[in-house]
């Protein structure tokens, strides 16, 4: 596979209205450059699957235009849909052989994709005996059969264990390094950030953020939360030193971005302010997603459960 000069996907003014007048997508526009990985991110009902279905030609748009650089042939586009569509009585190998025959692929390609997806030892297993992650890997194996340039995957991380997610990230990054292109949907920024070059965040069928993970990180930085005898005085002293991104929270504590703890201590000393404590506030990616989409933020961990991991937003690509 080699990358082409033009974008692999071009979407302009895409809208979808259903017969009950509900809106599946509204005036959506974005490009996915060849050789990159893009993520459609949003809570359930935000329009991700609708957009994926329109891209694959399974749903007609009400308005707008969609262009796939290689067209929609099975040799050009590999798709994973939800639900996964596995025949309940066919083994993993037999399922892949049926799809290989339809795509004109030899049986040797079935062995190859079983190896790629780590399913060789599960080749004689029927869907009822597969884990959710294995079910998704089987669907992904079918999508990989014709070695397509473009992969459009509807929530490929669903049901996967952490080790499987790491494998998926490596697979998709390897696909783009070889010149292929990936567009996948996910309800979580945690899933998207390690592999996405470009984010399209949806809420109620509309785009609420579009850009790189690095840009989103700059807009939603981690902060140090400062309790002191005068938040205003500390903020003023920090601003005099060039640290202007400081916000007084409803609890009267100061939330400061970019400045280090040493910077804050020096500013407080210069302002003759007494510091009570400085605590790091690492912004969980899905808190950012909740703020963008007005969806419910991640719930606190229950008894005996570890708290959500504070994850970085990734690096600029």
Give the helix/strand layout.
Elements: E1 9-17, E2 23-32, E3 37-41, H1 48-55, E4 63-68, E5 77-80, H2 92-103, H3 107-116, H4 132-144, E6 150-153, H5 162-177, E7 181-186, H6 189-192, E8 198-203, E9 206-211, H7 213-219, E10 223-228, H8 231-240, E11 246-248, E12 254-257, H9 261-270, E13 275-281, H10 285-293
Parallel strand pairs: 3-7, 3-8, 5-6, 6-7
Antiparallel strand pairs: 1-2, 1-4, 8-9, 10-12, 10-13, 11-12
Give an overview in words.
- The protein has 317 residues and is α/β, with parallel strands linked by helices.
- Helices cover 31% and strands 24% of the residues.
- The radius of gyration is 23 Å and the shape is elongated.
- It starts with 8 loop residues before the first strand and ends in a 24-residue tail after the last helix.
* Cα-atom radius of gyration: 23 Å
Contiguous low-pLDDT stretches (5 residues minimum) are 298-317
* Content of β-strand: 15-25%
Residue-averaged pLDDT: 89
The structural class is: alpha/beta
Distance between the termini: 21 Å
- Which word captures the global form? elongated
Using brief descriptors, characterize the structure shown.
317 residues; alpha/beta; 4-stranded antiparallel sheet; 13 strands; elongated; disordered C terminus
Brief account:
The protein has 317 residues and is α/β, with parallel strands linked by helices.
């Amino acid at each position: 596979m080699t990358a082409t000069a033009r974008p692999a996907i071009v979407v302009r003014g895409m809208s979808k209205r259903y017969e009950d007048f509900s809106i599946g997508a509204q005036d959506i526009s974005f490009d996915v450059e060849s050789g990159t990985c893009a993520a459609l991110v949003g809570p359930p009902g935000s329009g991700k699957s609708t957009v994926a279905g329109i891209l694959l030609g399974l749903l007609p748009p009400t308005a707008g235009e969609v262009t796939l650089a290689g067209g929609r042939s099975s040799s050009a586009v590999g798709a994973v849909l939800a639900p996964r569509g596995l025949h309940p009585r066919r083994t993993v190998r037999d399922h892949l052989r049926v799809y290989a025959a339809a795509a004109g692929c030899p049986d040797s390609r079935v062995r190859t994709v079983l190896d790629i997806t780590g399913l060789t030892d599960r080749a004689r297993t029927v869907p009822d005996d597969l884990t959710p992650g294995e079910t998704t890997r089987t669907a992904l194996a079918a999508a990989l059969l014709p070695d397509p340039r473009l992969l459009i995957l509807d929530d490929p991380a669903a049901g996967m264990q952490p080790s499987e997610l790491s494998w998926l990230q490596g697979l998709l990054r390897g696909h783009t390094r070889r010149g292929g292109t990936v567009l996948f949907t996910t309800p979580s920024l945690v899933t998207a950030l390690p592999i996405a070059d470009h984010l399209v965040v949806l809420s109620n069928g509309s785009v609420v953020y579009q850009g790189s993970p690095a840009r989103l990180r700059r807009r939603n930085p981690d902060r140090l939360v400062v309790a002191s005898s005068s938040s205003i005085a500390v903020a003023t002293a920090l601003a005099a030193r060039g640290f202007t991104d400081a916000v007084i929270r409803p609890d009267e504590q100061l939330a400061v971005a970019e400045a280090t703890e040493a910077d804050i201590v020096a500013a407080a000393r210069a302002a003759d302010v007494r510091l009570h404590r400085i605590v790091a506030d690492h912004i969980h990616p899905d808190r950012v997603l909740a703020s963008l989409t007005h969806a419910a933020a991640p719930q606190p961990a229950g008894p005996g459960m570890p708290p959500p991991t504070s994850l970085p937003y990734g690096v600029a690509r």
